Amino acid sequence: MTFAVRPAVIADVAGMARVHVDTWSETYRGIMPDELLDAPDLVDRRRQMWTQILDEAAPSKYTCAVAESDGRIVGIAMCGPPETDGSVEDRHLYVLYAYRAMHGTGVGQDLFDAVVDPSVTTALWVADPNPRAQAFYSKNGFVPDGTVKTDEYDGVREVRMVRQARGD
After folding, report:
1. Does pTM top 0.90 for this prediction?
2. Cα(27)–Cα(100) distance, integer angstroms
3. Could you read off the pLDDT of 147-156 as tens digits, one per residue?
4. Which residues contact 153 (CB under 8 A, 6 or more apart)?
5. Which stretches are transmembrane (predicted)?
6. According to CATH, what is the number of the domain 4-163?
7. How remote is the C-alpha of 120 from its chain's centroid?
């Protein structure tokens, strides 16, 4: 399956929202509450979220990318500012999702490479358990730093992973 990764634009919002909701369902069914995954307004809320982010998008704020295959968005990624002042990271990887049918094609790596700057320390939260994602991030130099939380929005247990800045 061929795909292309490119910067996200405002015209991508509907497709990005759809991927966000569909991949949550594929990945988190049984981990997140069904009422959250099946909420009738979830696609609309994700569309609003992506519209707001892309309206503000600037290299210093958010870096967003999409993967397209046959004219359809099949993956999304977003890196942005640290979650809080005084965080361990310079940038935070907030989103990296691709349809299950795209797993193993390299789309995740290409999306990751499009939004994550190796020259800055980057952190992320990954669901636990989620061995596939945790292995992917480990392969990309991320290491669990021992911080664990339960997300107040969806109740998912998450592990923070950090990758230190890499020099040339």
Report:
1. yes
2. 8
3. 999 988 888 9
4. none
5. none
6. 3.40.630.30
7. 17
